[in-house]
What we know:
By secondary structure, this protein is α/β, with parallel strands linked by helices. 32% of the residues lie in helices and 18% in strands.
Amino acid sequence: xxxxxxxxxxxxxxxxxxxIVATKLRGAGLDVIEARNGLEGYCWCDHSxxxxxxxxxxxxxxxxxxxxxxxxxxxxxxxxxxMKLKAFGxxxxxxxxxLTARGYIVEREQxxxxxxxxxxPKPFGANQLLEQVRAMLAASxxxxxLRMPGNEGTRAEAA
Length: 159
C-alpha cells in the first residue's frame, strides 16, 4: 500500500523565497505546487477563475493539504486569495500559513473570512517554517470530517 503524500501549494511572487520554501518542503517528502502570485494560486484550485482562453495547469483542480502564501503579492494578495479559497467549496477547509513582513497586521474581520491558521514573519528560517507546516498538517489530519488531500484529483470533503 502506497502512502499518499500531502500536496502543499506555495504562493510567493519572490522567486527566491518560493524556491527556498518549495525545496525545503520537497526535501521533507511533501509534494509542492508553486504559484507566482495569488491569482495563479487560486486558479490551481478553481479552474473557473482562469482568464478566458487560458488552459488549466492540471486536468483536475487542486485541493492542497495546506497553503503557504505570501501576504503581499500582485494580482491577488494572500489575504484575498485566502478569502476566495475559504468561500470556494472544495477548498473551504484548507488551512493557510501566511508569510508576512514583520509588524504587518491583518484586521480581525479579514482574518475571520479566511482559514489562516498561522503567521510566519519574514525573514524566517527554513527549519522553523518546516516545523510550522508539519504542525499544521498534523492538526488538520486530526479534524473530524476533514480528509487530508494528497495528489491531483483529490478533493476535501466538508464536515
